Amino acid sequence: MFSRDRWDEILEALSANKFRTFLTAFGVFWGITILVLLLALTNGLKNGVTADFGDFATNSMFMWTQGTSKPYKGLPKGRSFNYKIDDIAAIKTEIPNLKYVSPRNQLGGFNGANNVTRGTKTGAFEIYGDYPEYIKQQPMDILEGRFISYSDIDAKRKICVIGTGVQKGLYDKDEEVLGTYVKINGVNFLVVGTFKMSNSQGDGEQDASTIYIPFTTFGQAFNRGENVGWMAITAVDDVSITTLKQQVFDLMKFRHKVDPTDDRAIGHFDLSEQFGRVNGLFSILSLVGYFVGALVLMSGIIGISNIMLIVVKERTKEIGVRRALGASPWSIKSQILQESLILTILSGMVGISFAALVIWVMNTILDNAGPVDNFANPSVSMQVVFTALIILIVSGVLAGLIPANSATKMKPVDALRIE
Q1: Which of 21, 168, 176, 361 to pair with 327, CA 20 to 30 A apart?
Q2: Which of 253, 281, 257 lies closest to 268, judged by CA?
Q3: pTM for this model (two decimals)
Q4: Cβ-based burial of 374 (10 A; exposed 0-12, middle 13-18, buried ≥19)
Q5: Least confident of 34-48, 185-199, 293-307, 378-392
Q6: Do residues 40 and 355 lie in contact, with contact meaning Cβ atoms separated by under 8 Å?
Q7: Distance CA 160, CA 177 (A)
């Protein structure tokens, strides 16, 4: 604990040359500001990029078929094949640790090439045939009504769930949606629900222009039969889908007479693997932020150390008098260290506060301007703030250590001789 006299001495020493103290403190202020802002900007970039994954279960992969690249068991190279609905049951039975296996079919391409009509209004929307569990893999907010159910699957009901973009394109404002019909490629479907994607970013407009219908109804209405266009597969929480996907590939190759070494026959996109790469990239960027911020902060610390050396030089006679009156070396050293520490912490705390203000302004601008691609919610956690405080404390001690040692090495007699 500091005594009042010690506080008075420290404040007097720091205020003796206010401009010099300000310039010295500014180096630390700027260093810690840069450190916090770099980490906040890195986090904002991470939030923006990972938002492109949406709320889709990141321990998932998509899998589809491609032409074979090798002949096998009398079958030619370049052969096309399709997954079947019984492949889903086989995957669930043969491969443990899978949480969801959802067969999917789709009309048109990713740009939406399907004619959907209601009365005189027509729109081009994405049409998907899905099972009820898909909503657990790709969370969405049901605004009205409900999603697909297993009773719809079993009865092959001609029902659909439409996105807000579909509703906007085919319905007037405030017009009742539930219980109405839309015509998809000439087939009437009853609207039983409306939805929007949870925290939709990136392709949010495309997601909103989507229609979901029961998978079995899709096969019957659009002549797909038992064919499965592609699958969305999610592993249980404590097992990575990346470690299981080869088992899935091997099983599908066996069931469809594909050469086990033919890596081209099955296409896939491993969302878990991609998500891991993104997280790894931003972990590196965070380390770079700490490194660059620490270098800038170090320049401020060096400035404080230099100024403290000058202060010790200016107070040489005072130190000699105190030593002659019986002051211990530690008493002299502790005062120099305390002055350095207080200057560092005060300027650093102002820097953290200023950085917090800048981050708040950035978030306010983003909130008012709307979503920005690949950038969202720049922020730092309390852990970063505590880490910055620890860096400040250590830096303050290091900045005062050399001047403090220099002060205690002085002999009282030599110090008193200096004019």
Answers
A1: 21
A2: 253
A3: 0.67
A4: middle
A5: 293-307
A6: yes
A7: 11
